[in-house]
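Table 4 source record.
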Amino acid sequence: MVRCGCVLFRKYGNFIDNLRLFTKGGSGGMGYPRLGGEGGKGGDVWVVAHKKMTLKQLKDKYPQKRFVAGGGANSCISALKGSKGKDCEIPVPIGISVTDENGKIIGELNKEEDRLLVAEGGLGGKLLTNFLPLKGQKRVIHLDLKLIADVGLVGFPNAGKSSLLSQISHAKPEIANYAFTTVKPELGKIMYDDFNQISVADLPGLIEGAHMNKGMGHKFLKHIERTRQLLFVVDICGFQLSSRTKYRTAFETIILLTKELELYKEELQMKPALLAVNKMDLPNALDKFHELMSQLQNPKAFLHLFEKNTIPERTVEFQHIIPISAVTGE
């Protein structure tokens, strides 16, 4: 059942998880031989981690993908020591691995404001260099978002994500500890006869208002960015967090999950998505499933039932919708 989804992993939507960039440190400034003046050192190129950044934003903002630091100032009578060239900073998301053209790891950026020097500026002209400046370092680098899994399970609590993971991965999910986060998603691997593997992350349950950091909030949503594809898991009978909160139908759950993703980062909606409708073993599940399918075929016709601030800009288009029962294994 899950096997049919494998072919979809090649399609990434507009989600970008790697980028190739050209970087060059600034050239040094000219020395002043007559008075022994030293030219300024060229600026350096740094990669700096920012919480709100994505690789897609970086690519859109700098389509040339060229980053060159400023040159050092020449030595002159009024300033015998030339000033250093301006550094160039490349903003990247947290959880990035940086490698050179040969695949050698330069370093990783796992938390906000982590910095990594990728191209050094050239020395200014001085006695040692015969007062001639040196050129800055040129380097092609690769930025890779460290994916924690091929598939991320998205759903409100009690939708049956953990049960589904234990069914499809034939194992108790292992708990993986990642350097760039404090929450531990559960990872399971689906193994196939042809030795193909798909890693699936069961992420902590989302709740309404997660984008405002309620519950696991941002920690959860941060993990979703690190999966290649989303698998929404919803309970066919709907969801109610507690007696004080509103009951939501399966369709409302999907719309609200979509809205939470959008409010956190619109780009998450660009990822390829599948939908597993769980608990199909319950009474009247089939009737509810047919009703859900008609709602999903024309979601706009039902959006008037929602409060305006809960309606997403665009609804997720699922590549497959699969009725399942994590309990019976169907």
